[in-house]
Amino acid sequence: MTVELVAVERRIWSGEASFVLARTTEGEVGVMPGHEPTLAQLEEAGVVRIDPVDGSPLTVAVHGGFLSISPERVSILAEFAELADEIDVRRARAALDRADTSDEEGAAARKRAEVRLRAAESATAGQ
């Protein structure tokens, strides 16, 4: 199936994949070719995994957006997305330490930092 992951600022990845795993506001969705058409809102901060037909799985920290599925195509439209191997772990840890969870904005910043670290760790564990 054709998969395209696009963030507001750039195209993150596109190509052929055998599987996509994403977390939506309704729960985790695993997608294989022939999946029933679906439109879902992505979790505010989550990890997406794409298993390309050729190559190693990709792990991406995704913040907000939508997932559109048809039998032969998956489109992931994110507000912000970052490939796991592009994540600066030191900066993500610092952001996690700085996050003030006493308000909604600080709690969201903490969640984004946690997801970035989880994506980076998933990519490292898979190597």
Overview features:
about 130 residues; alpha+beta; 5-stranded mixed barrel; about 25% helix
Short note summarizing the structure:
This protein is α+β, with helices and mostly antiparallel strands. The chain has helices spanning 89-98, 104-125, and strands at residues 2-7, 11-24, 27-31, 38-41, 46-52, 58-70, 73-83.
What's the structural blueprint in terms of helices and strands?
Elements: E1 2-7, E2 11-24, E3 27-31, E4 38-41, E5 46-52, E6 58-70, E7 73-83, H1 89-98, H2 104-125
Parallel strand pairs: 1-7
Antiparallel strand pairs: 1-2, 2-3, 2-5, 4-6, 5-6, 6-7
Helix pairs in contact: 1-2
Structural summary, described in words:
By secondary structure, the chain is α+β, with helices and mostly antiparallel strands. It has two helices and seven strands, in the order βββββββαα. It has helices at residues 89-98, 104-125, and strands at residues 2-7, 11-24, 27-31, 38-41, 46-52, 58-70, 73-83. It has a five-stranded mixed β-barrel. β5 and β6 form a beta hairpin. The model has no long low-confidence stretch (mean pLDDT 90).
